[in-house]
Structures are given as C-alpha cells and as structure tokens.
Amino acid sequence: MFLRDLASGEFQDQVGKASDIVGGISISGITADSRKVEPGMLFVALSGTKADGAAYAADAAARGAAAVVAGHAVDASVPVVVVDNPRRFLALAAARFFGRQPETMVAVTGTAGKTSVASFTRQIWAEAGHPAAQIGTTGVVSPTRNEYGSLTTPDPVGLHKLLAELSDEGVTHAAMEASSHGLDQSRLDGVNLAAAAFTNLGRDHMDYHPTVEHYMAAKMRLFDTLLPKGSPAVIFADDPWSAEAIRVATEAGHDVRTVGRNGAFLSLKRVEHFRHKQVAEIHIGDEIHEVHIPLAGDFQIANALVAAGLAMSTGVAAPVAMKALEKLVGASGRLELVGHTKAGALAYVDYAHKPDALENVLNSVRPFTTGRVIVVFGCGGDRDKGKRPIMGEIACRLSDIVIVTDDNPRSEVPAVIRSEIMAAAPKAIEIGDRAQAIRAGVAMLSAGDTLVVAGKGHEEGQTVGDVTLPFSDHTELRKALEEFEH
Ligand SMILES: CC(=O)N[C@H]1[C@@H](OP(=O)(O)OP(=O)(O)OC[C@H]2O[C@@H](n3ccc(=O)[nH]c3=O)[C@H](O)[C@@H]2O)O[C@H](CO)[C@@H](O)[C@@H]1O[C@H](C)C(=O)N[C@@H](C)C(=O)N[C@H](CCC(=O)O)C(=O)O
Ligand SMILES: Nc1ncnc2c1ncn2[C@@H]1O[C@H](COP(=O)(O)OP(=O)(O)OP(=O)(O)O)[C@@H](O)[C@H]1O
Ligand SMILES: N[C@H](CCC[C@H](N)C(=O)O)C(=O)O
Ligand SMILES: [Mg+2]
Questions:
Q1: Mean pLDDT of 137-147
Q2: What percent of the chain has pLDDT over 70?
Q3: Taking a C-beta distance cutoff of 8 angstroms, is the pair 139, 149 a contact?
Q4: Which atom of ligand 2 sits closest to the CA of residue 117?
Q5: How far is CA 48 from CA 71, 181, 212, 369, in A?
C-alpha cells in the first residue's frame, strides 16, 4: 500500500502537500513504537505522557522505516510528513491499512458498566443468530476466541489488526468499550460505528483528566466526533450526567434513544429483586415485557437495558432482545457469585475499583443480605489518589465489616495506600496480604452474611513494583471457602 492511500479525511490534503514521490512510498506496516519497526514500515511519532515519539524517528529510520509521520518537523534520514494530529492519523491509517472490520460495530462509554454492556450486547446478538464479538477490559470474546486483554480500548494498530482478523473469521457484529483514555487518544477514530452508548459518569481517572468536565468531554467525543451523524445513540437516562450526554448527542444530530426509568425507547417501570435474579417490567412503545434477568444488582438492569438498546438499534427485534436478557451471563468478576459457606453465606467477586462502583455494589447486595455485609478491598497504586478516602468512607457507611487490603500497589508503598483509605475508614481492619484478607473475610461469615471482594474482578495477577505475580480473587476465595467448615 502507498503512503497516500493511508491518508483519509482531513489527512488527504496534509499528505497530499508532501511530494508525489513521498505519497508513492510503499508501506509494509504501521507502528507508533520505534522498537517494533521492521524494514518498509511507516513510523508514526506520537507525543506521549513520558516521551515524544519524534525523538525516536532516527531510531525508526535506522531500523528500516520507509517514512515517518509526525506532528512537527523532525530530523530523519527518511522522508517525514507533518500532520496536525498524529494520533488521529494513526487510527485512520490503521483502519485503511487493515481494511476490514465487522459490518456492525458499536461502542459503549461511561465510567462503569462498559465491559458488562459490551458482553451483554454480544450475548443478545448471538441469541439473534449473529456471529458476534466483544472487545474490552476482559479481552476478546468471539465464537472462535476467548483471549485475555490488557487495555480497555486497544491501541489503533492492534485494534484494526484484530478487527480484520475477526472479520475474516466471519464475525459480523462487534461491541467495544470506549475508555476515556482511548477516546482522548483517538484510538477508536478509525472504527465505523453503527451505534454508540453512554452508561454513566462518576469519579475516575482524575490522575489523567484535569477536571470532571474534561473527563466528560473526552467521553463525549464518541458522540460529537466519532459516531456518524444520524446514527442511534443509546443513553442511560437515570444518571446525573444523562442530560449532558443527551444534549451532546442531540446537538450532533443523532437518533437519541434513552433507556431506564426516565427512558423513552426502553422504559423501566418496575423491578423486583430476588437473590440471584431480578424481574423487570420494560415498556417498549405499547408493548409491555416482563423480563426475568438472572443477575443480581440494580446496575445490571441498567447495563442490560443499554445492551438491549444497542442490539435493537442494530437490527435485533424487540421480543428477541427481551428473551435474550433472560439468558444473560454476567461478565467475569462483575458481582460474580463465586461460592457460599455451608451455612449459606454468599461470597462475591466484583471489579468495583472506583467510588460509584463500590457504592453500587454494596447497595446492591444489602437488600438480600439478612446478616452483615463484609467487604474486602484496596486501591491501585499509581492511580488517582483522591478516590482512596472516598472509597474508605463508602465502605464504612455501607458495610458492617471493612477489611482494607492491597490491590495492585505498582510503584507505590502499599502501607501508604492503605493508610490513605483508612484515614476515612476508622472501623476498618487492615490486612495487607490480599489472600490473608480474603481468608479473614471468609472466616467471619455466618448464615445470612454476604462477602464482597472488590477491586480486581477478572484480573489474574497482582502488580507489585514492576512485577506481576499470579493472583486471582476467584481462586483465593474458593480456596478459603473450601478451607472453612462453617
Ligand atoms: C497513560 C496512557 O494512556 N498511556 C498511553 C500512551 O502512552 P504514553 O503517552 O505514556 O507513551 P510514552 O511512553 O510517553 O511514549 C510516546 C510514544 O513514543 C513511543 N516510543 C517510546 C519509546 C521508544 O523507545 N520508542 C518509541 O517509539 C511510544 O510507543 C509512544 O507511541 O499512548 C500509548 C500509545 O497510544 C498507549 O499505549 C499508552 O497506554 C498505556 C499502555 C496505559 O497503560 N494506558 C492505560 C492507563 C489506559 O489507557 N487505560 C484505559 C482505561 C482503563 C479504565 O477505564 O480503567 C484503557 O483503555 O485501557
Ligand atoms: N451501570 C453501572 N452503574 C454503576 N456501577 C456499575 C455499573 N455497571 C457495573 N458497575 C460496577 O462497576 C464494576 C465494573 O463494571 P464493568 O467492568 O462492567 O465496567 P467498566 O466500565 O468496563 O469498568 P472499567 O473502566 O474498569 O473497565 C462492576 O464490578 C460493578 O461494581
Ligand atoms: N484499567 C484500570 C483497572 C484498575 C483495576 C484496579 N485493580 C487497580 O489496579 O487499580 C486501571 O488500570 O486503572
Ligand atoms: Mg471495562
């Protein structure tokens, strides 16, 4: 493929300004990491949080790069094309280079619920007979794959390689998570979206975004920049930020479809909670559906509605979507019932690692807990420090027993992280070793109690310093449940 063929949209002019000879350079691959350059590849220099990729242009050229694309002039022994937004260029170029993606792509953004919505959307499509995939925090799931992932929204080159492979494997429908980092860094700019969704906004990533408005604006790029005008925008209507999302999507000229208690497209009228399921009455126009959703937690109803909205906006008939909700399987580690003690106390693993999520999960288990709610949690290192006391306060307010432990300390001193949580959690018990903390939580369980181990969900490792050691909340919880006889 020639360099000029990689340029689309606003970049046609920018690359066009470079000479014909430059446009005619043959490109064998694309990367934004000089260390991955192989002869004939295009190196796109991105300005990052730690380095300016342009500083590696010479390294890329030495490794055989055919050309460099950068945001400003750089010295290199190969042709350099200057564009105004290299991250967006990279995304659009990767889409053109790989050339294929599943015909029906949707993306969901929001502080909480993205993984669950992507999973539920895939499940509803599959029930409707479509070969479907989900891409996000828990990795890639499709009829032929179940792969563990690292980023919520993959980098564009990896993403478009994956989309091309999925398309070749016959996947026609794919739901992906749009993280605020991913949106802000233009990772999804080359995806052809058929519909998009918003779940909610809460405190998160305040280490990356200067203000909550900046964080919301990053999320809203999905609607004001990426979703083609006139496409369905599914918006959860019961969040404090719903009105803003509706405003942005309406202004962008989308077909806004609200879901929830305040929803007009899918209107939630009544929910009855049981231990392992909920019965929801959902009105769709004049039709009334009573749906038995086999998941605990109010928030799962919200996620199920958003997913049904996305599926129905991409061709699934309402009765088929409603039937599919009755078979939903929760995403791994999202209020997942891992086991129970002999006396019947329930033990869950949940991925709540931000304040709203912790509040939601603890509120969700309270209605079916006749005894005490016990929570084991910590906070990750090298991430938003401000959330630590907030989560400590929430845990104390909403649980009877709080055990503060380590999450992924990364480069921070674990005891300091714990003390920042404990500053607002006076009644908390401190047990740094996560496996010991889980055992202690299980040891306390009596009939009617509920244990929630929060923060790591599906994760299969614990990062201490630079090392990720194998660790699974599921495994530790199961071991502890087997060990105790009560
Ligand atoms: C903080 C953050 O978002 N970092 C992302 C960012 O990297 P960066 O800005 O730190 O990159 P950098 O180290 O400054 O380097 C700048 C450029 O120079 C290049 N380079 C660097 C060294 C070299 O020798 N040669 C070279 O070419 C790098 O490849 C890069 O392109 O740009 C990179 C390329 O797009 C991303 O891969 C990287 O994500 C890192 C891996 C990451 O951990 N991101 C997390 C925080 C993240 O994105 N999380 C979200 C949200 C999760 C959630 O919702 O909870 C996600 O979507 O997963
Ligand atoms: N709709 C929701 N509203 C509030 N909290 C939710 C909602 N959905 C999920 N949660 C909580 O957030 C946790 C993470 O859920 P999920 O993985 O679906 O969200 P996410 O947006 O993908 O999160 P992340 O950004 O960490 O990948 C759950 O374990 C649960 O505690
Ligand atoms: N993708 C998120 C996940 C955080 C999960 C939690 N276990 C932690 O380590 O803080 C992040 O990297 O911020
Ligand atoms: Mg996720």
A1: 94
A2: 99
A3: yes
A4: 18
A5: 12, 12, 21, 47
| Angle at CA of residue 167, ends 24 and 221, nearest 5° | 75
Q: Which ligand sits nearest to residue 182's alpha carbon? A: 1
Helices 355-365 and 387-398, axial angle in degrees (round to 10):
10
Phi and psi at 291, nearest 5°, equal: -115, 130
Residue 86 is encoded by which pair of tokens? Answer: 């290299």
Q: What does the block give as tokens for 179?
A: 């993280």
DSSP state of 222: I
CA 418 to chain centre: 25
Of 91, 121, 126, 116, nearest in space to 106 by CA:
121
Q: Is 179 in the pocket of ligand 1 (CB under 6 A)?
A: yes
Per-residue model confidence as pLDDT tens digits over 303-340: 999 999 999 999 999 999 999 999 999 998 999 999 99
Residue in the structure block whose two tokens are 């400003």: 72
Q: What is the pLDDT of residue 214?
A: 86
Ligand 1, atom 56, lies closest to the CA of: 152
pLDDT in tens, 445-461: 999 999 999 999 999 99
Closest Cα partner for 27 from 81, 72, 76?
A: 81
Tokens representing 398? 């909403």
352: amino acid identity, one letter: A
d(CA 9, CA 234): 26
Residue 225: both structure tokens together: 């920049």
- Ligand 3 proximity of 380 Cβ (cutoff 6 Å): yes
Looking at residue 211, its pLDDT comes to 85
Taking the whole predicted model, whether its pTM rises above 0.90 is answered as yes
Report the distance separating Cα 336 and Cα 330, nearest Å. Answer: 7
Is there a contact between 372 and 475 (Cβ–Cβ < 8 Å)?
no
Confidence of residue 359 (pLDDT cuts 50, 70, 90): very high
For the chain, helix, strand, coil in percent to 5 are 35, 25, 40
Give the C-alpha separation, 334 to 365, whole Å. 13
Distance of CA 82 to the CA centre of its chain: 32
